[in-house]
Amino acid sequence: MSRPRLATAATAALALLLAACPSDGPGPQPDPTGQPTSTTTDGAGPIGGTFYYSVTPPRSLDPAYATDVEDQQIVAQVFDSLTAVNADLRVVPAAAERWESNPESTVFTFHLREGATFHDGEPVTADSFVRAWQRILDDQRSLAHFHLRDVRGYDDARATDQPFSGAVAIDPLTLQVTLAGPMADFPAVVSYPALAPVPSAAIDQPDGFEDLPVGNGPFVLAEPWQGSEAIRVRRFDAYKPTVARLDEIVFKVYGGDTAIATAYRDFQQGLVDFAPVPPDQLEAAVTAYGRSEDGYTGPGLIDGPLLASYFYGFNIETPPFDDPDVRRAFSLLVDRTAIAEEILEGTRLPATSLVAAPIGPYQPQPCRWCEYDPAQATALIGDRELPTPIELWLYESEANERIGARVVRDINAALGAGTVRVHAVDPDDYAGALRSGAPAFFLTGWAADYPTPDNILHPLFSTETIGAENLSRFNSPELQLMLETARMQPDLTARATAYEQAEQFVLEAMPVVPIVQYRHTRVVASRVRGFVYTALKTVDMARVSLEAAA
């Protein structure tokens, strides 16, 4: 993703979102039968052509080390995980053609596609997944291990040389995964690109594999990437079940402070087919290229909401934020509309929930303390004496500091000059400061890795993650029971209802305050067909085609 991620013990979950930057079921969830879903692209457009896709410089193309969304976007074209998330945010088959679980949702059995191979011809088997997951757990450089922590044996495999006991190859085409506890959403977890299988070369020739990863996806890397200006992938004609339509994709790399402006200029000149749009060019882009009808499907400007939010949090163990009414008052003093429209130039949406968009039957619960209401806020504070000055911690960036200044201005206007002041911290020091619990009041953010409410509510508010993702140190046995009950629900509607109740519980307690929800600010060329950029910032390029030239 074109945003930095906070390096916690579960790094891939917590995102500090820079302002430069919807499976059936609650979240959506996989079809409970795990039945194959057609992936045909018939009728999408002619076969052939090169798609030019702008990206920021990737950190790695090896799935074990690709931690940013744009890295994963490339990885997802070269590798297939067990499942995938489609354009409707439904979990669908990928390397696994079907799956089932036991009634308790603690054992999942994935049945792999017969005849699938890696790009070097090696068969894709259940052992390919066991190998990949063991590799992630053994390598301290890999941050992807977070996504396996609900699997039995995770702690032992991380701390010792013991094999990962939770993932077992029953036979060449059957992978059985046993969890440490119930988790009906697990098929969504294994859609994550980092959990893709790897061939034996990843172990036998690790250096060569990192330079030129060999995958099992619809596209194959054409050459090693060593910091060049482009990454080229070509169609893998032996891919199952259906080969891609494009001949190739060229990921053009744009870095530095001018990356967005340069990529958009190249789009205007017809040099790329997909690019970010500078905030001050959004209306002009709509005029020039039109706007996507649903906010996700090209061509034109894509501006749909993302499963990512920016909020501020409280350490609820520290006065005055151990008092829920103080937390609610501070929420009522945030003018979310002004922040979204004035400070962030309409590139964000006011946030009044924790789960940032409707996903499946789950409906985000609006927060009654998320209106801008200074009068109600001061009434809640009443005669309480607040320790001043209260410091609002944030990491140094122009966008963060502009948002922080607006929050401080509005709080001080209602509660008195000097009540709150900004404390800006070097980004390299910010993660450690938040984990330490030193900041009582801080700006941060969250981006979902898979389309489930659990991926937001459990990391941020579970008692199991206090001091890691749960930076507010929210410790509620009642909420913990609600989250565990939701995880156990095999019925999609019941699971959605359980998570909705959990979100409402958190929003009433207010350990964090939603501020804005992120949205796309990208544009797609008029010649493109079948391009859907989801709320997770993913796109299935195997379904994309290019209109034939006149």
Give the N-terminus to C-terminus distance in angstroms. 36 Å
Counted by DSSP, the helix tally is: 16
Shape: globular
Which structural class fits the helix and strand makeup? Answer: alpha+beta
- Quickly name the level 1 CATH class of the largest domain: Alpha Beta
What's the Cα radius of gyration? Answer: 23 Å
Largest sheet, in brief, is: 4 strands, mixed
CATH architecture of the largest domain: 3-Layer(aba) Sandwich
Strand order of the largest sheet: 1-10-9-8
Characterise this structure.
With 550 residues, the chain is α+β, with helices and mostly antiparallel strands. The chain has two domains: 50-250 and 520-546, D-Maltodextrin-Binding Protein, domain 2 (3-Layer(aba) Sandwich), CATH 3.40.190.10; 305-519, Dipeptide-binding Protein, Domain 3 (Dipeptide-binding Protein, domain 3, Roll). The chain is built from 16 helices and 21 strands. The protein has helices at 69-78, 126-138, 154-159, 186-189, 201-204, 206-211, 259-268, 282-289, 324-332, 336-343, 374-381, 398-415, 427-436, 454-461, 477-488, 492-509, and strands spanning 50-55, 83-85, 91-93, 96-101, 107-112, 167-171, 174-178, 219-221, 230-235, 248-253, 274-276, 300-302, 305-314, 348-350, 390-395, 420-425, 441-447, 512-519, 522-524, 528-529, 545-546. Helix 12 links the parallel strand 15 (390-395) and strand 16.
Provide a short characterization of the protein structure:
The chain is an alpha+beta fold.
